[in-house]
């Protein structure tokens, strides 16, 4: 006996298409990948069997696909063979491959961020999702040496050409013992090595 229809959704990255099946507490999940097909079966808590058969719109690399089962869903990652932007999840590859060759600059006119296709009626703002992830990463403050390196990277990334030249020259000529952002000072000549107190600088042979 087949289970009632269960919703599924999908989104994509540059390299993968991710299919999410909203089947809760699934067991005995089996997933089979074909070059242009996907087959999923699972046993639900109701003892009914869930089945999903898809004829994919484009080719996938079967040996690089994977899936995971969590209490709330089944998530399947399909590796794109050609790295194309999928317009639809299902369909005839012969038809849709030609559509995908439209240059991205035409598809993304008016400076609007790309909207990832989805079977959901409510569109997801993936640009907003990426910003939220970036914000979370920023809030994870590094400590110790990692914090110092992060600070230097930020100074280097935000600095002018003169700041970057100063940092490169001072770091290289001092054997890593001096890091200056003052190009006027660094440009005057060779930057001397200044190891910490009590430490003697030696060249590594």
Q: TL;DR of this structure?
A:
This protein folds into two domains: 8-136, Immunoglobulin-like (Sandwich), CATH 2.60.40; 143-205, no CATH class. Helices cover 28% and strands 22% of the residues.
Q: How would you describe the overall organization of this protein?
A:
The N and C termini lie far apart (74 Å). The protein is of the alpha+beta class and 205 residues long. The strands form 2 sheets. A 4-stranded antiparallel β-sheet has the order 1-2-7-6, with no helix packed on it. A 3-stranded antiparallel β-sheet has the order 3-4-5, with no helix packed on it. 28% of the residues lie in helices and 22% in strands. It is elongated and about 80 Å long. It contains 6 helices and 7 strands. The longest helix has 15 residues, at 144-158. The chain folds into 2 domains: 8-136, Immunoglobulin-like, CATH 2.60.40; 143-205, no CATH class.
Provide the fold topology.
Blueprint: E1 8-12, E2 16-21, E3 27-34, E4 37-43, E5 49-55, E6 66-70, E7 73-79, H1 93-99, H2 104-107, H3 126-139, H4 144-158, H5 161-173, H6 183-186
Antiparallel strand pairs: 1-2, 2-7, 3-4, 4-5, 6-7
Low-confidence stretches: 96-116
- Quickly give the structural class: alpha+beta
Helix content: 25-40%
The CATH class designation of the largest domain is Mainly Beta
In what order do the strands lie side by side in the largest sheet? 1-2-7-6
Strand content is: 15-25%
- Structural shape: elongated
CATH architecture annotation name of the largest domain:
Sandwich
The CATH topology of the largest domain is what?
A: Immunoglobulin-like
Distance between the termini: 74 Å
Helical segment tally?
A: 6
Helix and strand element order: EEEEEEEHHHHHH
- Radius of gyration equals 27 Å
How many independent structural domains? 2
């Amino acid at each position: 006996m087949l289970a009632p229809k269960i919703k599924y959704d999908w989104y994509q990255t540059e390299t993968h298409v991710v299919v999410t099946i909203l089947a809760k507490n699934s067991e005995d999940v089996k997933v089979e990948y074909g070059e242009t097909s996907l087959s999923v079966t699972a046993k639900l808590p109701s003892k009914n069997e869930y089945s999903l058969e898809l004829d994919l719109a484009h080719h996938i690399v079967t040996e690089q696909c994977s899936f995971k089962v969590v209490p709330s869903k089944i998530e399947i990652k399909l590796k794109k063979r050609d790295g194309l932007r999928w317009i639809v999840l299902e369909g005839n590859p012969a038809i849709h491959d030609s559509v995908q060759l439209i240059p991205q600059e035409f598809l993304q006119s008016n400076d609007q961020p790309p909207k990832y296709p989805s079977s959901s009626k409510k569109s997801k703002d993936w640009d907003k999702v990426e910003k939220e992830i970036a914000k979370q990463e920023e809030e994870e403050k590094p400590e110790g040496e990692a914090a110092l390196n992060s600070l230097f990277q930020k100074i280097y990334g935000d600095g002018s050409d003169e700041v970057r030249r100063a940092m490169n020259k001072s770091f290289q000529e001092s054997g890593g013992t001096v890091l200056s952002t003052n190009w006027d000072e660094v440009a005057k000549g060779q930057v001397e090595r200044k190891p910490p107190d009590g430490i003697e600088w030696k060249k590594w042979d």
